[in-house]
Amino acid sequence: MHSAGLEDVLKTIDQRQHQSVTLLKEFVAIPSVSTQPEHAQDVRRCAHWVADQLRFAMLEVSVLETGGHPCVVAKNKHIAGRPTVLVYGHYDVQPPEPLEGWLTPPFEPTIGKTTAGTDALFGRGAVDDKGQVLCHIEAITAWQAHGGVPVNVTVLIEGEEEIGSANLGGFITRHREALAADVCVISDTNQFARGYPAITTGLRGLVYQEITVKGPNRDLHSGIYGGAVTNPANALAKLIASLHDDKGRVNLPGFYDDVVEPSEVEKLAWQKLPFSEQAFNLEIDIPTAAGGEAGYSILERTWARPTCDVNGLANGYQGIGAKTVIGAEASAKISFRLVADQNPEKIRDSFQKAMQERCPPGVTLTFADHGVAPAYLVPQDHWGVAAARKAIQTGFGKPATLIGSGGSIPIAATIKSELGIDSIFVGFGLPDDAVHSPNEKFDLDCLAAGARTAAALYAELAKK
């Protein structure tokens, strides 16, 4: 019954392509920057926009408080005996800065050409994660117009993913019964490349710390005081430099003790992928990808090896021209991407202890915690992976590729621990979508194929 219905659903999705683009423009135009207080009302407005689209899809919808930005929860009529699918996504976005890097204003979504010659919608959040959320909304809307989605579906769209989902864990715990499901579907990842749609079976974990080095009680004249006091910026630079050895390995005690190496089967599969180091370098305009841990390929480094990176630095005078000053304090935001089976708390504690031990005299350290999350692996023989393979073949007309990801989706581990279910990562974006960067985009053919894949996935999951 549902396989026959799927053909009608796919036709409806195809017929709605122009309308889908219009909706995505509306969605992206809302500056739902969760980390900036001045956009708090925009974030809330975006939640209600999502709720309205799900109501149009004839779902029962609630906008629920979390203690921070609200969550949108929607359900169809759940029928006993059918699989229940939890669909997770987020409507919040990263800050658009640096604004001078954008070719068009980040919250004035614009259709333009990509370097590949395809049409895409450019704007902050176009692919991360608004376009991918819209793929599921469009799939559900089409199914509801043809007798209803063939599974019990619960949609959970949050507004704090880009700031670590601090309130979502407690929200899931409080609403555990309402969110109970057999599997979770998350579309917040990429295809491997154009023409290579993918299922992501591994995500790295995360430890995100901010370290502040404090020195004198005020900024000092660098001539009068230079050489007489410990400069916080110099001290911070020394501490950061100590975090890696000359082979690119992270220099923390016990950092690699629990690292699980990828299997030979996985390594062989990755070697067969159409990956070009030269193309990788050209795409981000660097001469060579010489950084990182020696002895590993780029894919191995980004999918299966842990890392440490500085994400932000602050000290002293940042304005135009010169100001000879020793800043009273210096700070850095430092993230660690982790792999199975590294313990995030253990890594955080090792980092803080090492920094204290390596800290030069004359300054003091403080730390701020911006989140921890373990790595996440999806069993490749999971029934949801099998369903996703078939759905991708239907939606994209191409076989699915199994890949890893260097990114982190911390909520997957929470869903596993609180709801006891695995998550299947079926992403529709492309590696050149400029996620978190100026000129973020979502190709329009990916929007269409993503909606088709989501619709097919519900049909395949119904066969469990």
Secondary structure topology:
Layout: H1 2-15, H2 17-28, H3 40-56, E1 60-64, E2 71-75, E3 84-90, E4 110-113, E5 119-122, H4 126-144, E6 152-158, H5 168-174, E7 183-186, E8 198-203, E9 205-214, E10 220-221, H6 232-241, H7 264-271, H8 277-283, H9 298-304, E11 307-315, E12 325-326, E13 329-338, H10 344-358, E14 364-373, E15 376-377, H11 383-396, E16 401-405, H12 411-419, E17 423-427, E18 441-443, H13 444-461
Parallel strand pairs: 3-6, 3-7, 7-17, 8-16
Antiparallel strand pairs: 1-2, 2-6, 4-5, 5-18, 8-15, 8-17, 9-13, 9-14, 10-12, 11-13
Helix pairs in contact: 1-4, 1-13, 2-4, 4-13, 5-12, 11-13
Structural overview:
The protein folds into 2 domains: 2-203 and 375-461, Zn peptidases (Aminopeptidase, 3-Layer(aba) Sandwich), CATH 3.40.630; 205-259 and 306-372, 2-Layer Sandwich (Alpha-Beta Plaits), CATH 3.30.70. The two termini are 15 Å apart. It has 13 helices and 18 strands. β4 (110-113) and β5 form a beta hairpin. The radius of gyration is 23 Å and the shape is globular. The chain is 34% helix and 22% strand. α1 (2-15) packs across α4 (126-144) and α2 (17-28) crosses α4 (126-144). It has 464 residues and is an alpha+beta fold. Strands 1, 2, 3, 6, 7, 8, 15, 16 and 17 form a 9-stranded mixed β-sheet that branches.
Task: Please give a handful of descriptors for the protein shown.
464 residues, alpha+beta, Aminopeptidase, 2 domains, 9-stranded mixed sheet, 4-stranded antiparallel sheet, 13 helices, 22% strand
